[in-house]
DNA sequence: CAGTGGTCTAGACCACTCC
DNA sequence: GAGTGGTCTAGACCACTGT
């Protein structure tokens, strides 16, 4: 007993949704061009785009700026409580992670950052911008602020590697506790551009504060994810 | 040093974003109609709608079906680890929570539900559908499956009240552990309609499995949130 | 009823990617 | 240069809301 679809864009949505679920269209595969779809279904490009946008909102397809629409791969599961690095949890799920370093600078903390990281104004903070990809598809932009006073010499390390590993191996620091904030919102304009995505793309923001054993802020991490690329999972145990 | 905006819809976005941040437009306030905005800025309705949709994706405004666009109130912070009820965490943040019971049925478990809840196929499950609002604004639809065998007589209770309280007071059951899954995706069609929202609205899905002290599944809870209405916050402590 | 957003048409030009 | 999505125009009719 299927529901009657009287909207054209919903018809498109259901059509492609069906093809994707049946795996007639495979992850990473390119959809026909908007003009081709319009011709095939006798629809204006605007209507086609509306249909595609609803599929994008569902996380079934994604676009790369002016290159086309593609079927979304399955989302990676991110379980922050496990304290695994991006590299660990992505590869353990059978995907291929990679990291591009976009920028590294050392800046004095302004008033806002000083408060967030519980350091004095002017303290030296290492600021990293990285892009991380899964199977070659850019999925998140990361902005990281590191308290260099707690991790001397860290700015001389290779910053495209896993910070989790670096802290563990070189500094003997495991993350002790962390505070996590998740928010569903549009990707920031810069993040969208660096992901090769259209601005205003639905995104997931994660803000993570990592503390050392003494409760000091080791690192502040902002992650801007393509919303279809990740599922968050957490186990909460007895208090 | 402001960036030059050459897109019309981005200009609109920046304009209203500014007004909202300056509180020249207050939470809950209605925006002018799409046609009025178009006239004022000399833009087509399609372009106006595109601008408004990006503001919606940012979580700054929301719409109610055919009633208009409104400024979003601040998001409520949901911290699952605190095991507070919706009523508790909403009211403790200075908002007014309310709950509408949409449906109650008792059904035998099908194969899928039986597996998810670790019961025999055909076991009696209480199924609740509720709509929850903050300050009168519907923000989430909840689908709850309850294992009646563990909570005898529960189907005779008032199901618009807090389940957390009911379990605590009548059954002496506190939630022990829970498993949480968060996914940013479009609202389901039914959920969107019950929230008075357009279908395909960006949404946040939360899936929560609550276990009793013996590790049995007490309750399975699916929450479909308007994406601008909630921020998730979790503290993870030493393992 | 008038007013609102929801959907849709039939075009157009532009910016960028790919070859 | 051909093809793609990104943006935009100037309309139209419909479904639903409020009065």
In short:
Chain A has seven helices and ten strands. Chain A is an alpha+beta fold.
Commentary on this structure:
- Chains A, B: Keywords: DNA-binding, Transcription, Transcription regulation.
- Chains A, B: It comes from Hahella chejuensis (strain KCTC 2396).
- Chains A, B: One of its GO terms (molecular function) is DNA binding.
- Chains A, B: This is Transcriptional regulator.
- The structure is a homodimer.
- With about 240 residues, the first copy, chain A, is an alpha+beta fold.
- Chain A folds into two domains: about 10-70, Arc Repressor Mutant, subunit A; about 75-230, Chorismate lyase-like (Chorismate lyase, 3-Layer(aba) Sandwich), CATH 3.40.1410.10.
- Chain A is built from seven helices and ten strands.
- Chain A has a six-stranded antiparallel β-sheet. In chain A, strands 1-2 form a two-stranded antiparallel ribbon. The first copy, chain A, has a two-stranded parallel sheet with strand order 3-10.
- The first copy, chain A, is elongated and about 65 Å long.
- In chain A, about 35% of the residues are buried.
- The model of chain A has no long low-confidence stretch (mean pLDDT about 90).
- Chains A and B meet through α3, β7, β8 and β10 of A and α3, β7, β8 and β10 of B.
- β7 (about 175-185) of chain A pairs antiparallel with β10 (about 230-235) of chain B.
- Chain A binds a DNA duplex (19 and 19 nucleotides) through α3.
Helices and strands in order, then pairings?
The structure is a homodimer of 239-residue chains.
Chain A: H1 8-21, H2 34-41, H3 45-58, E1 61-64, E2 68-71, E3 76-78, H4 86-92, E4 97-108, H5 111-117, E5 124-134, E6 137-147, H6 163-170, E7 177-186, H7 189-194, E8 202-211, E9 217-226, E10 230-236
Helix pairs in contact in A: 1-3, 2-3
The structure holds a DNA duplex (19 and 19 nucleotides).
């Amino acid at each position: 007993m299927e529901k009657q679809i009287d909207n054209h864009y919903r018809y498109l949505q259901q059509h492609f949704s069906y093809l994707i679920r049946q795996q007639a269209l495979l992850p990473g595969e390119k959809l026909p061009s908007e003009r081709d779809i319009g011709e095939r279904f006798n629809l204006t490009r605007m209507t086609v785009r509306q249909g595609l946008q609803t599929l994008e909102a569902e996380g079934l397809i994604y676009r790369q700026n002016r290159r086309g629409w593609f079927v979304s791969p399955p989302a990676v599961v991110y379980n922050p409580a496990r304290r695994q690095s991006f590299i660990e949890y992505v590869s353990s799920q059978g995907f291929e992670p990679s990291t591009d370093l976009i920028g590294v600078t050392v800046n004095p903390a302004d008033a806002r950052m000083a408060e967030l990281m519980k350091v004095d104004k002017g303290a030296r903070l290492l600021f990293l911008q990285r892009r991380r990809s899964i199977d070659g598809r850019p999925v998140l932009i990361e902005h990281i602020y590191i308290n260099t006073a707690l991790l001397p010499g860290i700015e001389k390390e290779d910053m495209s590697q896993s910070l989790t590993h670096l802290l563990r191996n070189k500094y003997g620091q495991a993350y002790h506790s962390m505070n996590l904030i998740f928010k569903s919102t549009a990707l920031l304009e810069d993040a969208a551009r660096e992901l090769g995505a259209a601005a205003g793309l639905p995104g997931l923001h994660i803000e993570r504060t990592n503390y050392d054993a003494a409760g000091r802020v080791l690192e502040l991490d902002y992650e801007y994810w393509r919303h279809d690329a990740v599922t968050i999972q957490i186990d909460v145990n007895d208090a």
